[in-house]
Amino acid sequence: xxxxxxxxxxVPLDLERRMLGELSRDDVEVYEVxxxxxxxxxRGSLSGADALVIEWGKADARTFDAAPQLRCVSMxxxxxxxxxxxxxxxxxxxxxxxxxxxxxxxxxxxxxLIVDLYKKITWFDRQVRDGVWDDMAGYDxxxxxxxxxxxxxxxxxxxxxxxMLQAIGMNVMAYAPTKSTALLxxxxxxxxxxxxxxxQKSDVVSLHCPxxxxxxxxxxxxxxxLMKPTAFFVNTSRGGCVxxxxxxxxxxxxxxxxxxxxxxxxxxxxxxxxxGLDRCIVTPHCAYHSSDSxxxxxxxxxxxxxxxxxxxxxxxxxxxxxxxx
Length: 325
Description:
Elements: E1 3-7, H1 14-22, E2 29-33, E3 51-54, H2 61-66, E4 72-75, H3 85-90, E5 94-96, H4 103-119, H5 121-129, E6 148-152, H6 156-167, E7 171-175, H7 181-186, E8 189-191, H8 195-201, E9 204-207, H9 221-226, E10 232-235, H10 244-253, E11 258-261, E12 280-282, H11 291-309
Parallel strand pairs: 1-2, 1-3, 3-4, 4-5, 6-7, 6-9, 7-8, 9-10, 10-11, 11-12
Helix pairs in contact: 4-6
């Protein structure tokens, strides 16, 4: 019987078992495995697994060496930087993600954070909870209408966010090296010729980039100093794109006005230099989440694993087995 292991599942596997029944796939077993201290599947937990589905955790070369029979590692996410794709390919193992399942949800969350920063909703709520009733408390903030939102990269989430920003009267600029001026113009977006230009001209800077070598630590002390002292910063992409200590310092010394982040570098706990700062909103990597997106994510992750077990190339494969060797 083929077996699919689940690592870091936030909920029991009831949906998966129900789905297997609906697909008449009673020949497939799903089960949960624990992680080690590094977030990998615990030693020996994959000895009988043919596929691995990951909600929270990682798989590196050690994982594939310990479980050479794996035919698929299926991520319940868009990003897959926590999977060693090359090691998987060498072992003849597909790596899959779930692209676009939460595009609308993340765009909406990003808009919510931007509106929150302008209207100080979280700020005022904290004040009232502390017994302070003062409608003038906190930093001064203008209307977003007529201000410029600068988007770092212009993939599907940034494209979904753009009309939302335009609907509240914002101008949109994007730093998107791989996108043409004509394409951006078709969305009503101005093309920034460099990241520095975008940072200098934007009233809100919002990250929408994957975590790769070129974007790691892209927001640091140097780039933060380029931003307006009245600017807001938002990150709903990847925590590794930001040097958190530098952002915390910029918020503390007034280099920028305020920030809101949904991601951080270490998401195994709630600790971060950003947590507890008055001028920073932190949400727990939940931008993707709605009941609809969560169901779609889990459903598509299982389908990718089943396709691999059936000897097919999964619909959402991100690697090529031809890289093996």
